[in-house]
């Protein structure tokens, strides 16, 4: 997720200043809706959202989980809205609106729960550790490793989240390049750009892409038209950075990781789950989340099979820093497969933060601010300028509320423009190290080596890739505009 500022919401406040309070307006699915953008409740909602985001930005300083202020702000915004609508005798209108937002969140939550459960299961079965071990044993040169980790980050992030992918690749480059900080820093920048680009062309790669797909705005396979623009976005800055990668070959590392039983079958079950979700959405016109929940039963049943056929075995692992094989003291029985253990390990703070964001932005939309912002962005600026600007904003503000706001506005755009905003919202976080969860995570993982300044030095190359990716989209998918 992206670190946030409040640039777009300052524009929201300005847009609402001239609006008459309590002016009734029509809204899809609602008989009456009040425009509160010039009302005290509107200003209060903006203030609450703004203060909550300040706490989000200061999360590490205050040691206050980001979900707490955002969920509180969401509750207070909707309480304020409900009070006004109750006074006007229109409580059912506010109720219908918040139920719609909760339903949107519920579908995404179920989808993400299944996806994360599979990722956690693969991590526990050592799929990612095995990949890391294979990479460090190959004896790649620094430049080969730079490209291999970047390409793998690009591909893996299309089905996994960008933070997990980036941390996996960072572990590889730190293990083999710990004696060469320059190589580690460049590879981290490359990994962040690659991971963000890889999530843009597949609905499973990024939450923003997933939201667009689940809304039914763009068909599943249509997203893959962004594959080449995403590649361009990654390859151009990577090609320029590669020139600065030191020559030579790191010292070989002895590393051995043994996959736990069932690891490969869980990977296959995850791919089957993806196909099930696509079949539900495209073939049966049912929510993709329902298909994902059906896919969760595959993992549950396989887990039951692993439980019935379990056998105790010594578990062999590796010290990733020393590069030496070690035998774990505890037997394999310690690692009995448990689906609900993987569900419990989810990053609930992020999922609950997402809930707060959805309800806060939904409240601002219901108040009327997003309607005015849509008029400005997509009316005065035009779709192309607005969608290009979204990428810049997503480097400063979390891309989840930005995309949810755009979906709430639902501007009239061609499929090509919807793909453009999906691309820019996904890759825009690469413009700054704090612009995405991948960048923030790597600054902690490679502390002192990969920093804000390290990333900023390559900002011109990343911007060039960003603009070239947009250009490639217009060139290759011109018929969709």
From TrEMBL:
<keyword id="KW-0739">Sodium transport</keyword>
<keyword id="KW-0813">Transport</keyword>
<feature type="transmembrane region" description="Helical">
    <location>
        <begin position="288"/>
        <end position="306"/>
    </location>
</feature>
<feature type="transmembrane region" description="Helical">
    <location>
        <begin position="105"/>
        <end position="123"/>
    </location>
</feature>
<protein>
    <submittedName>
        <fullName>Sodium:proton antiporter NhaD</fullName>
    </submittedName>
</protein>
<feature type="signal peptide">
    <location>
        <begin position="1"/>
        <end position="26"/>
    </location>
</feature>
<dbReference type="InterPro" id="IPR004680">
    <property type="entry name" value="Cit_transptr-like_dom"/>
</dbReference>
<feature type="transmembrane region" description="Helical">
    <location>
        <begin position="389"/>
        <end position="407"/>
    </location>
</feature>
<feature type="transmembrane region" description="Helical">
    <location>
        <begin position="419"/>
        <end position="446"/>
    </location>
</feature>
<keyword id="KW-0812">Transmembrane</keyword>
<comment type="similarity">
    <text>Belongs to the NhaD Na(+)/H(+) (TC 2.A.62) antiporter family.</text>
</comment>
<keyword id="KW-0050">Antiport</keyword>
<feature type="transmembrane region" description="Helical">
    <location>
        <begin position="266"/>
        <end position="282"/>
    </location>
</feature>
<feature type="transmembrane region" description="Helical">
    <location>
        <begin position="70"/>
        <end position="85"/>
    </location>
</feature>
<feature type="domain" description="Citrate transporter-like">
    <location>
        <begin position="53"/>
        <end position="426"/>
    </location>
</feature>
<keyword id="KW-0732">Signal</keyword>
<keyword id="KW-0406">Ion transport</keyword>
<dbReference type="Pfam" id="PF03600">
    <property type="entry name" value="CitMHS"/>
</dbReference>
<feature type="transmembrane region" description="Helical">
    <location>
        <begin position="351"/>
        <end position="369"/>
    </location>
</feature>
<keyword id="KW-0472">Membrane</keyword>
<dbReference type="InterPro" id="IPR045016">
    <property type="entry name" value="NhaD-like"/>
</dbReference>
<feature type="transmembrane region" description="Helical">
    <location>
        <begin position="220"/>
        <end position="245"/>
    </location>
</feature>
<feature type="transmembrane region" description="Helical">
    <location>
        <begin position="144"/>
        <end position="177"/>
    </location>
</feature>
<keyword id="KW-0915">Sodium</keyword>
<keyword id="KW-1133">Transmembrane helix</keyword>
<feature type="transmembrane region" description="Helical">
    <location>
        <begin position="458"/>
        <end position="476"/>
    </location>
</feature>
<feature type="transmembrane region" description="Helical">
    <location>
        <begin position="36"/>
        <end position="58"/>
    </location>
</feature>
